[in-house]
Amino acid sequence: MKISVPLQNGWLPDRYTKHANDSDKIDGRPYVSFPINIEEVPTNAQSLALVLTDDDAIPVCGFTYIHWVAANIDPKTTLIPENASHAELIPMTYGHNSLAGQLLDVQDPMVNEHYVGPTPPDKPHDYHLTLYALDQKLTLKNGFWLNELEAASTDHVLAEANAILPVEN
Q1: What pLDDT, on a 0 to 100 scale, did the predictor assign at position 112?
Q2: 91 contacts 72 by C-beta, under 8 angstroms
Q3: Does position 159 have pLDDT exceeding 90, yes or no?
Q4: Residue 84 DSSP symbol
Q5: DSSP code for 163
Q6: DSSP state, 43?
Q7: What is the rounded average pLDDT of the residues 158-164?
Q8: What's the pLDDT band for 111 if we cut at 50, 70, 90?
Q9: Secondary structure string (H, E, C) spanning 66-83
Q10: Which of 19, 41, 56, 80 has its CA 20 to 30 A from that of 134?
Q11: How many other C-beta atoms are found inside a 10 Å radius of the C-beta of residue 26?
Q12: Is the separation of the CB atoms in 68 and 35 below 8 Å?
């Protein structure tokens, strides 16, 4: 399985990051998700799941920052279009990002259960996008946590694809 995200001069385009226009932000946070091209999904896949995290956030906030988690995407999907998360352009089950945790405690599901764009505070960060092909649809509901996705997908991953998305400070 393969995934790709359009980069601009080697960086995730500004529209999807802290450099986005104010019209593409909610409470100062970028919300327009980037497009993801998907190829060579196993024919026996029953669903896809995606995770976008920032390990470079560990020295800043003490944990890997979760920017986007989604499950139960149709395995025939070849493109997750721009702004698919907030505009709900394709069916998916939305998981909590790090804004939902008790440390940040943002209550609005339109912010804490959808894509929240990269906002590196200290230096350029590399964001890790992982797409999983699963042999079943997961019994998760909107608002699930990353650890619940991991538990539900144990022994059900058919293939995995990864991409590193660099973001300028």
Answers
A1: 83
A2: yes
A3: yes
A4: H
A5: E
A6: T
A7: 98
A8: confident
A9: EEEEEEEECCCCCEECCC
A10: 56
A11: 14
A12: no
